[in-house]
Hints:
It comes from Saccharolobus shibatae. This is Probable ribonuclease FAU-1. GO terms for molecular function: mRNA 3'-UTR AU-rich region binding; RNA endonuclease activity producing 5'-phosphomonoesters, hydrolytic mechanism. Keywords: Endonuclease, Hydrolase, Nuclease, RNA-binding, rRNA processing. Probable RNase involved in rRNA stability through maturation and/or degradation of precursor rRNAs. Binds to RNA in loop regions with AU-rich sequences. The protein has 425 residues and is an alpha+beta fold. 27% of the residues lie in helices and 33% in strands. The termini are far apart. The chain has a seven-stranded mixed β-barrel with strand order 16-17-18-19-20-21-23. A six-stranded mixed β-sheet has the order 2-1-3-4-15-5, covered by helices on one side. It has a five-stranded mixed β-sheet with strand order 6-9-10-8-7, with no helix packed on it. A hairpin with a 3-residue loop joins strand 11 (130-131) and strand 12. It has helices spanning 12-21, 31-36, 69-75, 153-168, 184-200, 217-228, 237-240, 245-252, 260-266, 389-394, 401-420, and strands at 4-7, 25-26, 48-53, 56-64, 80-83, 91-92, 99-100, 103-106, 112-116, 122-126, 130-131, 135-139, 144-146, 171-175, 209-214, 270-276, 282-296, 299-307, 326-332, 337-343, 350-358, 362-364, 367-380, 383-387.
Amino acid sequence: MKGRVRIRGIYATALTSIFSSFSYEIVQQSAEIAERFMLEVNNLPADITIKDFEDDRGKIIVMGNGIIEEDLHYVFKYSFHWRSPIKLYSVIEADESCTYGNFKVEPCLEEGIVIKPPYDGKIVLSETKAVSKYAMVWRGKGVTTFSEHINNEEERLRLLTLSSPLNRKGYNVKWRSNAKYATLNELKEDLERLVLRYENREFRDQGEDFYLITLSLPDKLHLDEVRKSIVNTIKYHHMLKLSYNREVDSLEKDKEGSPVKLLEALISDFMKIEHIKADGKAIYLRGGKVIEKEVNNDGYRMTLRREFNGNGVLDGIGKRIDNGDYDIVEYNSDKWYQIHKYYSGIDNSLKGIYINISTPPELLRGKIRYLDLEIDIAIRDSEIIVLDEDELNKKSIYMHSSLVNKAKKVANYLIDYIQQNKLIL
């Protein structure tokens, strides 16, 4: 076995199937997952946790020690992968300007433990602690606290029998969720090691790997297919779950259930646009009015009209944006690009074409979301311009080679298509 993995959240069924096939030992399954796989619940401590990102369930957190990075890239070939350069629960020292490396540190402690990796550009610290997969120990007021996942009173009393003697000596103890799956003897030995590490300041190897994966629609559709081999699953299951959790569950009780009505309900008269960069940062583009749409069991497409105020220059096209200018763009669940046609608000003449290469767009309530693949194409007058290919190469650290190659293949296809069909202004 490669390691013990705990999996939680809306992707649990599909990921349990996949990581089991990779020879990871799945532990701490929910009763529902255990029943689906016809297994006994395996209540052993986990080395690795895979779960939904609390702020956005379109992302997955992977944390712990022992995960093989190549396996993550294999499962999520067309998604963005961010690996923290600083381990979760590692001990760091902020400099005089309250930074560590290129990251802002909050609060500005001279030394502290990382409790939030810098996926948004900021490291969050707390006071220094010795940490294991079962507990945290540090000097303080002599209190015991518990993970939110340890809510059984009998279990808390069991753990208090071990931590109370340390509390009386002035140590704080926080029990982590894994503690309820270990024996008293294992936990007693672990606390003894943590106290020694804390007092001797042996923090050099402390910390857990942390990955934040921003899922693409193609990878969610792949997870749909994996889940379908275990239990009845409609197309777009994992995408629709982000907006219609109970409705999807109800629909899947009917083996002939169709996602069409839920897909239609996601499309409002005006759609926002979430443009996600390779490092996981979201940029919100000017949204648009839906002027045409089509939804069926196989997918969806919609055409937006985006209107502009007179300000700035059209990116890649180089022409000034005048008041009343507008963009007509189609979003199609099957296409890895969107063609933006920019028109003059004065005489409706075509100012230029900009083709954004991205993963196929997914739908949330009143919003379109896609992963931007950096490389783009602009058509200006009689010229085809390939933009930001160097940026794609730079950002490839966040992508599997399959995604980088796909972006380049799409760009080459579009250039050939434009030339063969003489789509030059």
